[in-house]
Write a structure and sequence with these properties.
alpha/beta, 5-stranded mixed beta sheet, 5-stranded parallel beta sheet, 13% strand, binds 5-phosphoarabinonic acid
Amino acid sequence: KTINVDIKDVLSTVSRDDINRLEGEGAEALDKVLNGTGAGSDFLGWVNLPTETTEALLDDIIACADQLRATCDTVVAIGIGGSYLGAKAVIEALSDSFAAYRPGVQGEPKVLFAGQNIGEDYLYELQDYLKDKRFGIIVISKSGTTTEPAIAFRLLKEQLESQLGIEEARKRIVAITDAQRGALRSLATEEGYKTFVIADNVGGRFSVLTPVGLLPIAVVGYDIRALIDGAAEMEKATSEANDQNPSFLYACTRNALYNAGKKTEILVNYNPKLHYFGEWWKQLYGESEGKDHKGIFPAAVDNSTDLHSMGQWIQDGERTIFETVVSVEEQKYDKLIPSDEANLDGLNYIAGKHIDEVNKMAELGTRIAHVDGGVPNILITLPALREKYLGQLIYFFEKACGISGYILGVNPFNQPGVEDYKRNMFALLAKPGYEKETEAIQARLK
Ligand code: PA5
């Protein structure tokens, strides 16, 4: 089984010819991704990553995860952006919805996240929670210099050392960073932490299938080999410039829609476990394509929840949007709607049906309504929320993102725009080296 992409519900907005016209550019874009002939080609390490991931690396990650599982009831994964969202997305997609409240249920040890915000209360409450926990830390930063995770790590390192002593704490800290550069690398070397390397040629948002994503996922106990196998299947299925290549088809279709004035893409799920997958996808596409004053704006909704909030806008607001629906075919458990003799709630007409059948009718009914209302729909079906299919889906979106960015005419692998806020923040905080910027920004604020 594999994921499937269906574009028939965009054809009332763009024709097959509109899409086919982009196939030449799409083929060139795919060639750039596969052969490294486009902008940002030193960041294409993710392209062959699934088929090139060695058994030795997977063994090392699993052994490290087992070690943390044996010594910790809680592991805090510290990181932001690409050093956070992939692991969070996969863990949420695979976990029991109430794992956080049920010790001993799937998801033990708990993996918590930090360094993905600068919330004082968040960090206070996290440290308070960890007071009586046997916790460990996975600190992840490719550059090794990002402020948010550095703050969280400073706090949690100090806490772990005071709870366990410096020597024991060192055994419970794993650092994932650049092979040589950055403050985190120097710190890890100095302290003698176990480390994993993020290769130079893999950008943050393309790093979920490296130790960045794989270690936290393995700590919860999920099958990272199946995740990589699924991605490897997709790597093989996305190497040719034709409609059998789902990434190629998706990339050409979304660019045809963009050219037709559809400037916002909404990733839609009908499964609450996919909320963070939407967050991961937003980063992947937003940071890769939003450049040179161009690019589809990536948004996401969780249905049917958001049908009761954003549903009105999507059905009836400005017609500049399209949707990409991620539909999960099979659920893990069976739950039927019970019959009730009194039928006071009037629900007996669906008694005996699977909850998911109702959900699927909400999904189908919504897709029909949205298409009728002028919102083209791309439909991606996922056989089930399992490691292998998530691996397929991740790689499918990554490959499509590279192709799509090149069709758009941007470098999909840099992110120059995220430096601006950092420069201002450092100036405002009077970071050494930013004296001139501090002076300028203070003058401006007077
Ligand atoms: O995709 C990216 O490159 C970014 O989102 C980074 O992942 C994010 O800024 C975190 O960077 P780092 O891992 O260097 O701390």
